[in-house]
From TrEMBL:
Entry's family note: Belongs to the pectinesterase family.
Keywords tagged on the record: Aspartyl esterase, Cell wall, Hydrolase, Secreted
Protein name, UniProt field: pectinesterase
Keyword Secreted: yes
Documented EC number(s): 3.1.1.11
PANTHER family: ACYL-COA THIOESTER HYDROLASE YBHC-RELATED, PECTINESTERASE 10-RELATED
Chief subcellular location: secreted
Pathway annotation: Glycan metabolism; pectin degradation; 2-dehydro-3-deoxy-D-gluconate from pectin: step 1/5
Lineage: superkingdom: Eukaryota
Protein source organism: Vigna radiata var. radiata
Molecular-function annotations in GO: pectinesterase activity
Classification via Pfam families: Pectinesterase (PF01095)
Enzyme class: hydrolase
Amino acid sequence: MTPVVAGMISGDRSSFYGVGFYSLQDTLWDDKGRHYFNSCTIEGDMDFIFGVGQSLYEVIISCSISVCEAYPGKAIIGFITAQGRMNVDDENGFVFKNCNIHGFGKTYLGTPWRSYARVLFYKTTMSSIIQPLGWQPWNSSVDGGVEFSEYDNMGPGSALSGRVSWLKKLDSSTLMKMTSTEFVARNGESGEVEKYCGRFLMVATGETSDPFVLAMEALSSFPGKVIHSTRFKSGKEFKDEHVFVVGAENSKREKEER
């Protein structure tokens, strides 16, 4: 099988809402930086979410991890994650919160790409495709720095009774920190949570003929003005103002330039 990367994210403070990533091996290269994935679908079969990113995958509508069968007809079982944290002091890791794991065949939740790999599954629904051990070493053994954790998950694949002995237990403060958006908003050097404020929000999502505003957390309480890019006619109203533009490709860049 030849790895085919559907998406590689190396920028810092990147967010994805309602985006689909589809491939087989190495689907999503969550390379580095702080990333937030909301209501996304990621499909693959072997190490298909991998990298050294500091990322939170969660749901408002549905966060789906779809597993295909690795090497059909052969006794090879794939892995969902291959996280690559290299130092115990590094802040990066993958957190899956309120997600849904489904598909066909069999799979493990992950394998450590590097010696201090860190992955947490939290309040996630796991179907029976998850192998009872849950995790597998990269080689023949696992270093003591690996931090794989599971808390409050649901479904037939979530039973902890058959899991590997080296599953990591987290204290309550660490669990709270990792499952909050602060996990991807905190500056690794200063330790401060970075917040960005604006009086206007412009959304450039959907097609011109079918515009829509994504269901984003706290949007209903946003005190400023929210418009879709199809209603944008002139930049005069926003002169010298702080404006967030949410979207991708041509429409987003066009509005930023204007």
